[in-house]
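Lab channel / #folding
Pinned by the channel admin:
"Please post every new chain as: sequence first, then the structure tokens as a reply. Keep commentary short and put observations after the output so the thread stays searchable."

First post following the new format, from NK:
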Amino acid sequence: EVRLVESGGGLVQPGGSLRLSCAASGFFFENHGMTWARQAPGKGLELFSKINNDGETTNYLDSVKGRFTISRSDAKRTLYLQMNNLKPEDTAVYYCQMGAFRGQGTQVTVSS
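Reply from TO:
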């Protein structure tokens, strides 16, 4: 059974940082590209960052480029998202995704 479990969310002030993690199980993690997505209140799901299976290629939407960094540890079967210089518009539930599978999400709230 594919399982993706996100953690690391919370409340942070504008300009602050958070590091999200996504623990993966139930599939060959090292064989799959992974995606971070988010859904802000009242908005649709936004897939904003991807990393390929060997970790060499990453992609970001302009909304997070230069502030967020996606990475992975195949040894730990974990996907990461380092988020710096957070803005109120980054407030959302953050999900990791592999193909059609998505975790339960972790809430990130950016507010003073």
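NK: The mean pLDDT is 97.
TO: also worth noting, The two ends are 40 Å apart (CA to CA).
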